[in-house]
Amino acid sequence: MATPAQPEAAPTSVPLIIGAVAVTLLLASLGQTIVSTALPVIVGELGGLEHLTWVVIAYLLSSTVVAPIYGKLGDLYGRKIVLQVAIVVFLGGALLSALANSMTFLIIARAIQGLGGGGLMVVAMAVVADVIPPRQRGKIQGVFGAVFGVSTVAGPLLGGFIVEHSSWQWIFLINLPLGILALVVIGLVLKPNPNRISHKVDYLGFALLTADLSAFVLATSLGGITFAWTSPEIISLVTAAVLLLAGFAFVEARAAEPVLPLPLFRNNTFLVTNAVGFLVGMAMFGSITFLPMYLQLAKGVSPTNSALQLVPMMVGLIGASTLSGFLMSRTGRYRFLPMISTAVLVVGLVLLANMQLDTPDWQVAIYMLLVGAGIGPVNSTGVTATQNAVPRPLVGVATAGNTLFRQIGGSIGVSVFGAIFASGLASRLGGLMPEGSGVGAFNAQMLAALPEESRQTVLEAFAQALHPVFYTAAVAAFLAFVLVFFLRELPLATTLRHEPEAEIEAEEAGAAAAAGSPAGR
Question: Regarding predicted confidence, which is higher, 18 or 237?
């Protein structure tokens, strides 16, 4: 087992570290959300409309596949150097994106930016585990959850404001001062790992995991949108993902220092929190994707105003995340938080599923508030519980697992919900839509060109087609609610160095693995 990375910090520097971590998380989350409202302007200047979705997919794909790799590297070589590398790569990708003179160049630059962005999320949250005891991490993770909530709404708003008042290049250049500030603070206050020992790097595991996640994310991102789910392209990607996963499991079971240790999946906390995060990720990304579409098309509001109307969701997410963090630190317990929040999420999504064209805005705001409150505690609770339940040498890779499964859930959610919506819309509209138009062509300009009677029919069909989307999200949230009851709660440790519960679980898992018998986790 590799010696754990233990960057220590003086008490006076801990607030600076937490501030720098918050900035890096803000960078990573804005990297995902700020581009959406600027895409039409970028395409208008660079051309390449057919490649528009790849600007988003490139970042999502690269940030997802590197998450567990960064987690493992942070465990092996220390958080400081790995986090600094991630920031530099992210800023390099942002600078290249600003310099792009074609869509192909921009897509490549976004992929590079994602290679850094995936590390920002994972390693930054793992840094907290090195400087804050588990009992106190709840409050910090609650703050980080608030950062994600802010970026959900602030990203599209900021992107829209920038392209309206300046050039689109500034949506990337704005990352530079924030990233440099975080880089300087981390360099000054976070100490490097003093242990200099040799490691056996699992190169084959890295390669197989990267290829597997790439095939999986591409299949879920392109399926039902660019290619039909039954097309040869998607079937080939899914088949490749399954085969690569089998090969990865075979290699990891024999690796000296595996990139994603298989005994983690015998850890009850790791397994349940990631399954819950996966399902809530589906519901979250699906809601965030389709709510603005509903507001812009069914309600007729502008893109900027649709982002503003998401504020209730942000308020719910921030408030619930912050409150859950406070309660975790105050009580040392956490299992009841995802139980309550996923139940609230189910209610909010069912209410959204019953929206009509004449549903008052204030009611929609309440529904979105409930959805935000249901999402908020899940991520912060999952990260804190996981970090408390695994031995220190695996904190980084376990934290990466939380990010990985949430993002994969989001990718699948957007793809599946998009297919459900497209199918429902097509069946309700029949031959009313212009020939050759699909979901990608469904926009305000097309609606305005329709006769008044036809426009009303289309809008009603649109609202009805969204109902099964939110019902499906509600089913995912309900499954998450059920899974929480299988979570074994370990009291949050109050000290930084000695975490007996995690060590006992690690010893039990290791003994079971050595004996070749299944662990009863």
Answer: 237
For residue 515, tell me if it sits in a domain: no
Among residues 105, 114, 122, which one has the least CA distance to residue 59? 114
The first and second tokens of residue 93, run together, are: 């990708």
Q: Residue 301: pLDDT band by 50, 70, 90 thresholds? A: low
Block residue for tokens 């602030």: 154
The tokens of 67 are what? 């998450």
Which pair of tokens denotes residue 475?
Answer: 């089913």
First to last CA, the chain: 21
Last residue within a domain, chosen from 197, 215, 233: 197
On whether both 97 and 186 belong to a single domain, the answer is yes
Summarize pLDDT for 244-291 with one digit per residue, the tens.
Answer: 999 988 988 888 778 778 888 888 999 999 999 999 988 887 677 677
Report if residue 373 sits inside a domain.
yes
Q: Note whether 74 and 39 are same-domain residues.
A: yes
Chain segment 428-445, per-residue pLDDT in tens: 766 555 544 444 445 555
What is the SS3 assignment for 223? strand
Look-up: residue for tokens 């503003």?
A: 308
For residues 193 and 207, membership in a common domain is answered with no
- Residues 193, 208, single domain; the answer is no
Q: What is each CA distance from 47 to 36, 161, 211, 461, in whole angstroms? A: 16, 21, 30, 32
Is 379 in the same domain as 342? yes
Which residue carries 């206050």 as its tokens? Answer: 189
User: Which residues constitute the domain of residue 308?
Assistant: 265-510
**Which tens digits make up the pLDDT trace of 205-221?**
888 888 888 888 788 77
Q: Are residues 413 and 322 in the same domain?
A: yes
Instruction: Return the SS3 of 227.
Output: strand
Q: Which two tokens stand for residue 188?
A: 């000054």
517 falls in which pLDDT band (50, 70, 90)? very low
List the CATH number of the domain containing 29. Answer: 1.20.1250.20
Question: Phi then psi for 227, rounded to 5 degrees?
Answer: -125, 150
**How many angstroms separate the CA atoms of 225 and 43, rounded?**
19
Regarding whether 98 and 193 lie in a shared domain, the answer is yes
By percentage, how much of the chain surpasses pLDDT 90? 15
85, 83, 27, 82: which is closest to 59 by C-alpha?
27
- Regarding whether 229 and 190 lie in a shared domain, the answer is no
Helices 395-429 and 452-484: crossing angle, nearest 10°? Answer: 150
Q: Count of domains in the chain?
A: 3
Instruction: Give the pLDDT score at 37.
Output: 67
pTM, 2 dp: 0.74
DSSP class of 4: P
